[in-house]
Amino acid sequence: MIRPARTGDDARPPGPSERAATAVGMGAPAAAADVVALVADREKWVASHADDDASWAVLGSAYLEQARRTADSAWYPKAEKALKRSLEVRPAEKGNFDAMTAMGSLANARRDFGTGRKWGELVRAQAPRRWTAYPVLVDAYTGLGDYKGAQKAMEVLLELRPGLAAHVRASQVYRDRGWREDAVVSMESAAAAAKAPAEKAYALFRLGELSWERGDPVEALRQYEGALRTDPAQAEALAGRARALAALGRGGEAVRDYRMALGRTPVPQLARELGELLESLGREEEARAQYEAVETMAVRDGANGVDDDVVLGLYEADHGDPAAAVRRLSQEWERHKSMQAADALGWALHRAGDHTAALEYAKKATEPGLRSADFAYHRAMIERALGDEAGARRHLQEALRTNPYFSPVRGPLAKEALAAIGQPPPGGPEHLQPVTPWVEPELPKPNPQPSPKPSAKPSPSATR
């Protein structure tokens, strides 16, 4: 049966702003043009409806999605202002869950994971079955280094709302645990659940990242190119393609893609990667320009509330003042006890000459389960500095086995270090085999006890 048409019915497909509003409300990526349309639509609306808390929350989420797509941290203060306005109109105590969830996402995007956790927990305390709180909690607990908490939040999310956001977080949790196959399967499920090209492209990009991390640049390149065909504005996939091309020996094309990606999303990590690629190609002057850009971008982000201390600390440890890197990363470790912070602090301590303390943090980075060639390389070099050749050999082999292309600078250094250490001496430990033939020991012979004789059965006459 088909009911008669009603006044409010609209058979037209959703417009760009409606598509973007649906995407950001579901915690999913949105197309660049749709986000621009949504921002313009909501800005026009709130100009004449200043007390519409829901529209302020949508506008703040749209600003946040613009920041994610463009890597322009100037969008973060605008998002914060819009979300605070929404909370002024309808406070958190009255259940303004959309604004509260977006505030948590904003804090996570700025890498202020402690604040992100507080907003997520506030939503969960008021509405435990509201699924949008759990992606915020997964990201926050991961950034804080509470991987058990992240896994519990992910399991609840999968139970409440299995879909793109849930499968993406599940893949992230499994990757951090070192369960590569589970991470790939979850991300493939996310790609299958994607409904819009931007969502599909994001899932393909993440599949490319997983392939890259396990040392398969050919498969990674295929996934990155699939993401770019699906959404040509996917700048993260463009940077991934540059990484894969560099691993395949196509340095000129890699430099081109890195420059294009930096033009769209100027983030410190990409500048550092391009600087290392240029350094490996012998283009020292261009590499220095990129290394200087790392600090410039980090300062810009810091002015907008973004925490880039891990990337900046690693840059300072390798190309600046290791002591300053130790101070910066020690403060970062106090805030966020993640594997990334532990690895960076361990490396900075090693570069500053404190190898014993460095090893403790390197262990904190490598033992939770994440398979990272960079982490293994850092630990190997620290162990080598301490004279532990067996440990250094083992972790250098692990780094090259995990991803032999992990860095155009550190990858060749890892191979050189492994060749310099060499293999263990032949023969193994002394006296591994007994020096005399084995002789069966003389055991005492058993001395069996005599069993008692059964008593004679009484005659019938005796019982009378």
Biggest sheet, in brief? none
Q: Radius of gyration in whole Å, from Cα?
A: 30 Å
Q: Based on DSSP secondary structure assignment, what is the total number of beta strands?
A: 0
Average pLDDT, all residues: 90
TPR repeats: 201-234
Protein name: Tetratricopeptide repeat protein
InterPro entries: SRFR1-like, TPR-like_helical_dom_sf, TPR_rpt
Keywords: TPR repeat
Explain what this protein looks like in three dimensions:
- The chain is mainly α.
- Helix content is 69%, strand content 0%.
- It is built from 23 helices and no strands.
- Helix 5 packs parallel to helix 7, helix 11 packs antiparallel against helix 12 and helix 17 runs antiparallel to helix 18.
- The longest helix has 20 residues.
- The termini are far apart.
Keywords:
mainly alpha, single chain, 464 residues, 69% helix
Give me a quick take on this structure:
The protein has 464 residues and is mostly helical. It is built from 23 helices and no strands. The longest helix is centred in the middle third of the chain and has 20 residues.
What secondary-structure arrangement, pairings included, does this model have?
Blueprint: H1 16-25, H2 32-48, H3 53-70, H4 75-89, H5 97-109, H6 113-126, H7 133-144, H8 147-160, H9 164-177, H10 180-193, H11 197-213, H12 217-230, H13 235-247, H14 251-264, H15 268-280, H16 284-303, H17 309-319, H18 322-335, H19 339-351, H20 355-366, H21 373-385, H22 389-402, H23 410-421
